[in-house]
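in:
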């Protein structure tokens, strides 16, 4: 897929200048932006929103001959910021018709050449700083953020002046990279959702969020969302340096790779030579007529699933703080169940000794054994599970849980103290996360859903 940068078929306007941070926006484009509506030529860029979070802009160039595409279609997809453009001001996120310059001067000519080669050109960009919420308190600010994005994209697309589209995800939902919602919306828009409609081998995505470490010439990448998006789609990935400057591809190994995690878990449970049993915990059993069992583990570690699959069939009644909201209400509910002679499972994170001590005292008050189920899933895996659950409400989220904020995981890590028998537990049963589900669910779980540079 790498090609040497072609010469543009016409001069790039304006020509390069010596000042490094000079805007590449033409005077004509700026003048057109500020011209009264009655004097403007018909707008080539049309906008719409999808599900109140996705912004879609489609540019139709009147001076460029239309393509005669045949299936399968080749798609050239690009990130926007730090891939096609960079700011030419001190403000990293400035959005005006003149606050940007090309990441490299070869980009306009390169994209025009791709169009002439028959590629469908699209831009897929996360734009979390743009809000589409209907909130009276922030209406003016939100309206301005959207208007500024549209104004900047308009000048960018006018300089390129080839048919292309932008998809900008503003929310924390299925459209946000590395999730594939923007790509799937694009396929629907261009009627390419049928099997075999896209030439996957020839298609590619170019972006700067590749999980690269800091160098003397480059700051550390903020995430792996662009690399992971390409992997989720199943197309080739290039950094801007690789695609536009023909730089050598850098080696990269994912910090957390879902498919590899499943494979490693399966292989660790297979008997090796001379081994008669798999290396998994013995099944959890109820040891006494009445018990208090508490969980300890990160959000997304599998606590609720363990309750429904294991504890509920054994007769434990569930107490969950996500439902009851406060610890006091949870203790009150647990007392009611214990008074009725029932066994109780406390389905909370119970991160530290102080929190678990409340339940140890309750068990002693009722003279029942207390046991701890320790969920060992690390934060990266737990965040992945939470995102899979929240983004697939129809197939993998029976309790309709919403996406948790990052602070929920950070708070658990900060408070976490590994449980010990010295706290008063009869035993501690460890549960390592293991994916269970259909092949279709496994396919969904194996995608990248959360992209971060490090754990």
């Amino acid at each position: 897929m790498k090609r040497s940068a072609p010469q543009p078929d016409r001069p790039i306007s304006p020509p390069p200048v010596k000042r490094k941070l000079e805007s590449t926006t033409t005077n004509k484009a700026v003048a057109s932006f500020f011209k009264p509506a009655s004097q403007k030529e018909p707008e080539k860029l049309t906008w719409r929103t999808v599900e109140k979070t996705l912004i879609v802009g489609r540019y139709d160039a009147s001076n460029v001959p239309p393509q005669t595409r045949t299936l399968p279609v080749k798609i050239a997809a690009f990130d926007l910021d730090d891939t096609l453009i960079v700011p030419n001001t001190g403000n990293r996120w400035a959005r005006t018709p003149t606050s940007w310059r090309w990441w490299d001067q070869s980009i306009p000519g390169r994209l025009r050449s791709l169009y002439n080669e028959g590629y469908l050109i699209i831009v897929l960009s996360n734009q979390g700083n743009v809000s589409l919420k209907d909130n009276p308190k922030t209406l003016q600010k939100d309206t301005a953020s959207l208007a500024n994005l549209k104004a900047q994209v308009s000048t960018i697309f006018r300089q390129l002046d080839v048919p292309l589209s932008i998809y900008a995800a503003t929310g924390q939902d299925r459209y946000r990279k590395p999730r594939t919602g923007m790509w799937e919306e694009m396929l629907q828009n261009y009627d390419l959702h049928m099997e075999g409609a896209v030439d996957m081998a020839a298609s590619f995505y170019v972006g700067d969020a590749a999980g690269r470490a800091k160098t003397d010439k480059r700051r550390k990448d903020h995430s792996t969302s662009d690399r992971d998006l390409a992997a989720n789609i199943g197309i080739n990935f290039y950094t801007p340096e690789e695609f536009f400057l023909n730089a050598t591809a850098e080696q990269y190994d994912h910090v957390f790779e879902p498919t590899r995690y499943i494979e490693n878990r399966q292989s660790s449970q297979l008997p090796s030579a001379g081994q008669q049993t798999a290396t998994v915990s013995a099944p959890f059993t109820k040891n006494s007529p009445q018990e208090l069992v508490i969980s300890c583990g990160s959000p997304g570690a599998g606590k609720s699933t363990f309750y429904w699959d294991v504890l509920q069939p054994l007769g434990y009644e569930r107490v969950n703080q996500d439902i009851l909201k406060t610890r006091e209400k949870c203790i009150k509910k647990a007392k009611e169940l214990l008074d009725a002679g029932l066994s109780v499972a406390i389905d909370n994170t119970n991160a530290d000794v102080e929190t678990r001590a409340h339940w140890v005292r309750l068990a002693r008050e009722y003279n029942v054994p207390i046991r701890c189920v320790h969920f060992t899933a690390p934060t990266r895996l737990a965040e992945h599970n939470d995102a899979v659950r929240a983004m697939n409400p129809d197939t993998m989220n029976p309790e309709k849980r919403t996406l948790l904020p990052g602070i929920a995981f950070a708070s658990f890590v900060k408070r976490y103290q590994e449980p010990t028998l010295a706290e008063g537990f009869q035993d501690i049963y460890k549960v390592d996360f293991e994916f269970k589900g259909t092949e279709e669910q496994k396919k969904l779980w194996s995608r990248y859903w959360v992209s971060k540079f490090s754990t």
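note: DSSP finds 14 helices and 14 strands in the chain.
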